Amino acid sequence: MSDVVRCCVVGGGPAGMMLGFLLARAGVEVTVLEKHADFLRDFRGDTIHPSTLSILDELGLLQEFLTLPHREVHELRMQLGNTVIPVGDFSHLSAPCPFIALMPQWDFLNFLARQSARRRTFQLLMQAEATELLRDGERVTGVRMSTPDGQRELRADLVVAADGRSSVLRQQAGLEVEVLGAPMDVLWFRVSREPSDPAGVLGRFDAGQIFIALDRGDYWQCGYVIGKGSADDVHRRGMEAFRDGVAHVAPFPRERANEIRDWDEVKLLTVQVDRLRRWYLPGLLCIGDAAHAMSPIGGVGINLAIQDAVAAANALAARLRAGQVRLDDLARVQRRRELPARATQWVQVQLQNRIVRPVLQSVETPAPPLPLRLLERFPLLRRIPAYLIGVGVRPEHVTTPDVQAA
Ligand SMILES: Cc1cc2nc3c(=O)[nH]c(=O)nc-3n(C[C@H](O)[C@H](O)[C@H](O)COP(=O)(O)OP(=O)(O)OC[C@H]3O[C@@H](n4cnc5c(N)ncnc54)[C@H](O)[C@@H]3O)c2cc1C
User: Fold this and answer.
1) How far is the CA of 294 from the centre of ligand 1 (A)?
2) Which residue, 41, 94, 217, 310, shows the most beta carbons closer than 10 Å to its own?
3) For 228-242, what is the mean pLDDT?
4) How far apart are CA 397 and CA 401, in angstroms?
């Protein structure tokens, strides 16, 4: 393997894998580093949004992608106590696929990895954990990484940090982080799913409790939302109390909660919402959660990450091919993507403060707030959340060439 490439992308999540694919497709020599041995790891959402499906369509990959097992979610509903409120209707979106495709994220990432592997200039290194930025004066010139064969260095004209919300690279770069905060964390576990269960996504809010469940065929991937930093209290109260809490809020029979045997099966996912004031340095660009960690609210972080990747490839592919990336090119990516990230985080923070926090603190089943009552009453309004979740602010389109096709 060459120890010098045009672009080194750190992180094989949605942002990194999509950017790696787009750059390789445009003929740029690119290496993606992923610290894990496979994509079967921590939960980061199963939602493939209409905008991502449109991008796959632009890339000529949609039909092949849709042959993978998935569920189509045409409408989002929320349950407050026993009242079910439709909150988003995707069916009116003008997109090739006006629905969310629910698919385990590893299937999506493996799909991108297979497509990328067909490109001559693409390289994916698994079990390669970037540990340090290499620098020449002010300029980032590559990364040091830890691999099963020991420490290695990879030099690149541009390093892209797509290493998620706990980004080591953005920390090493000393980029200033603005923390917006989140009132919750999530406990993550599985219970079985019966064919007679409802399909798609379930979400239920009740006194002091929020529960979500994603349909993964023969099991439900469940999220039990708890107050920020309260996981130790939940543990102290004991497994039986936890099962009771789940059984109370989950729309399944009680026996399903009894399937959770011990705490090893319950993973804590910490939620953080923040953003960088500046996404770049000479030789380094941050995208996706590394640039703006998203709340799980609305399930839009993957969408933002993919859109960042498309915008970065559009702005940088030709420059990278020519070996002429300038600081201003990196600034252009931030200028293009900062508004969508800020606007989406603003909505998420409003929902965190106005709905999530009060529900977690409530002792009675909350009454639907005014915006939800309006959505219930006027079906046309449901197109707004559907657009924000399914497409988002300032959708991107692929403008990079497919050099092999050409
Ligand atoms: C509890 C929770 C639930 C969520 N649910 C949803 C949802 O349903 N839908 C949705 O759209 N969004 C959801 N989100 C947000 C979403 O997970 C993120 O916004 C999205 O994953 C960001 O993608 P990314 O590619 O930027 O980063 P990530 O998905 O975090 O990917 C980063 C990758 O980098 C790798 N990595 C990290 N450090 C290194 C290193 N040093 N060297 C090499 N590799 C490294 C990691 O292993 C990982 O593969 C949720 C978030 C949380 C916290």
Assistant:
1) 9
2) 310
3) 96
4) 12
pLDDT at 69: 93
Condensed to tens digits (0 to 9), the pLDDT of residues 41-92 reads: 656 778 999 999 999 999 999 999 999 999 999 999 888 888 889 999 999 9
Residues with CB under 6 A from ligand 1: 10-16, 33-36, 44-45, 47, 129-130, 162-165, 168, 186, 269, 271, 288-290, 294, 296, 299-303, 305
* Paired residues of 292 in beta bridges: none
Per-residue confidence (pLDDT) for residue 42, from 0 to 100? 58
d(CA 200, CA 175): 39
Kind and range of the H or E run holding 88: strand 83-89
DSSP letter for each residue of 97-136 = S-SEEE--HHHHHHHHHHHHHTSTTEEEEET-EEEEEEEE
Best substitution site from 18, 163, 273, 391 to test ligand 1's pocket, by max atoms within 8 Å of Cβ?
Answer: 163
Q: Please determine, for residue 158, whether its predicted confidence score (pLDDT) is greater than 80.
A: yes
Report the Cα–Cα distance between both ends of the chain, in Å, rounded. Answer: 26
Q: Are strands 274-276 and 219-227 parallel, antiparallel or unpaired?
A: unpaired
Q: Whose CA is nearest to atom 34 of ligand 1?
A: 11
The position carrying tokens 């493996």 is 110
With a cut of 60, say whether residue 1 has pLDDT above it. no
State CA 358 to chain mean position distance.
Answer: 25
pLDDT at 348 over 90: yes
This prediction has a pTM of 0.95
Tokens of 63: 């039909």
- DSSP-assigned states of every residue in 253-318: -HHHHHT--SGGG-EEEE---EEES--EETTEEE-GGGTSPPPSGGG-HHHHHHHHHHHHHHHHHH
Rounded Cα–Cα distance for residues 238 and 126 (Å):
38
Confidence of residue 329 (pLDDT cuts 50, 70, 90): very high
CA of 14 to the centre of ligand 1 (A): 7
**In ligand 1, which atom is closest to the CA atom of 288?**
26
Give the separation between CA 243 and CA 220, rounded to whole angstroms. Answer: 15
Place 19 in a pLDDT band, splitting at 50, 70 and 90. Answer: very high
Q: Which residue, judged by its Cα, is nearest atom 27 of ligand 1?
A: 164
